[in-house]
Amino acid sequence: MTDSAKVRGKVVVITGGARGIGLATATALTALGAKVAIGDIDEAAVKESGTTRGFELYGKLDVTDPVSFENFLDEVERTVGPIDVLINNAGIMPTGRLADEPDQITRRILDINVYGVILGSKLALAKMLPRRAGHVINIASLAGETHIPGLATYNASKHAVLGFTDTLREEYREHGIRFSSVLPTLTNTELGSGISGPKLLRPAEPEEIADAIVALIAAPKSKVRVTTIAGIVSQVVGLLPEAVGDGIARALGSGHAFLDDVDAAQRKAYEERARSV
After folding, report:
1. Cβ distance 121 to 80 under 8 Å?
2. Helix (H, G, I), strand (E, B), or coil: what is residue 45?
3. What pLDDT, in 10s, does the model give residues 134-184?
4. Confidence of residue 221 (pLDDT cuts 50, 70, 90)
5. Alpha-carbon distance 200 to 37, whole Å?
6. Annotated catalytic residue: which of 58, 115, 154, 270?
7. What pTM does this model have?
8. Can you tell me the distance from the alpha carbon of 192 to that of 141, in angstroms, rounded to the nearest whole number?
9. Is the pLDDT at 1 greater than 60, yes or no?
10. What architecture does CATH give domain 3-275?
């Protein structure tokens, strides 16, 4: 059976769906016949994306607000149908040294990237467990398997998402609910603007992440890394002795890619939006 046949008709909810990976995924799934609902904190952007692409449902969603999140999922089930897949995609990535990171930004990263994923997973479970069917896909990052200067809190948040998702995968293994993680490398979205990334490793396109998510819905597994090469490098470096692994990472430029090498002017708009409290 093709991916299209396995995806067609499924009700899929995507947080942070107004742009980037979320929008690319929503577009790909809709093209394959899925019933897609996107939510996003940016009400103007989600309205524009929803109306121009013909998704089943779109609306404002604050993943850090239990009332907002629960109401959105309730509306999906009321107007579109029982949720088959929840993709916890919403996330932010402010860059910079930890000593320069205001406390409210630290809390904002953790609230969106970690609490939002936990909250969404919990609310999805409440709907899926009685049906003994469902799939929660949490968008993590290859940063969740490594450590990158300039991304300390972001790294911490993605390590948390991986540990959380792996735990739920086992906790609900016999209850009919699937849990999966997606680990993208640096991707050509607004989140990655002004960043060139490590040497030798090309950025991914959001459509590549979307294709991986489609495949994951069609044939669930615990995690998928994109790109394949970046994923292999991440895993291999993680297995090496610390001094060797860190030396390779430095040689690839990871020590400066998210600090001194950032194009601040190109990244300014994203940083301002991500940091708005």
Report:
1. no
2. helix
3. 999 999 999 999 999 999 999 999 999 999 999 999 999 999 999 999 999
4. very high
5. 37
6. 154
7. 0.95
8. 12
9. no
10. 3-Layer(aba) Sandwich (3.40)
Distance CA 54, CA 59 (A): 13
Q: What share of the chain is helix, strand, coil (3-state, %, to 5)?
A: 55, 15, 30
Among the ranges given (11-25, 209-223, 234-248), the one the predictor scored with the smallest mean pLDDT: 234-248
Give the span between the Cα atoms of 271 and 277, in whole angstroms: 12
- What does the pLDDT look like over 222-239, one tens digit per residue? 999 998 988 988 888 888
Is 58 known to be catalytic?
no
pLDDT tens for 97-129 read 999 999 999 999 999 999 999 999 999 999 999
Spatial neighbors of 193 by CB under 8 A, at least 6 apart, are 266, 267, 269, 270
Q: What is the 3-state secondary structure (H, E, C) of 58-120?
A: EEECCCCCHHHHHHHHHHHHHHCCCCCEEEECCCCCCCCCHHHCCHHHHHHHHHHHHHHHHHH
Per-residue CA distances from 250 to 96, 107, 187, 257 (Å): 17, 28, 20, 10
Would you kindly state where each structural domain of the chain is located, as residue ranges? 3-275
As beta bridge partners, residue 178 has: 135
In angstroms, how far apart are the furthest CA atoms of the chain? 55
DSSP for 196-216, written as a single string: --STT-PPBPHHHHHHHHHHH
Task: Please enumerate in sequence order all residues whose Cβ is within 8 A of that of 275, keeping only pairs 6 or more positions apart, or say none.
Answer: 94, 105, 108
Q: Are 245 and 255 in contact (CB under 8 A)?
A: no
